[in-house]
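hi! just following up on the protien thing from before. the input was this:
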Amino acid sequence: MRVIGSREFNQDVSAAKRLARLEPLFVTDRGKPTHVLMSIDAFRRMSGERESIVDLLALPGARDAALGPVERWDREPR
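and the predicted 3d structure came back as:
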């Protein structure tokens, strides 16, 4: 378990996110824990949540796929 102060968190959010990928990161304000930052995977394991339909439809890597032209359904065919 890592602990950082809110000032350190505000100065380098990217570093805090990197730390939170490894383990939950507690953020303190005047020495008292106020927030916990954790990866989405850790949160899902803890809460028992599964991927949502939105996550599944996001198509990771879709930018690399060769997709055809977009079809428009809101107008009459030509």
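DSSP finds four helices and three strands in the chain.
The beta strands are 2-5, 25-29, 32-37.
cheers
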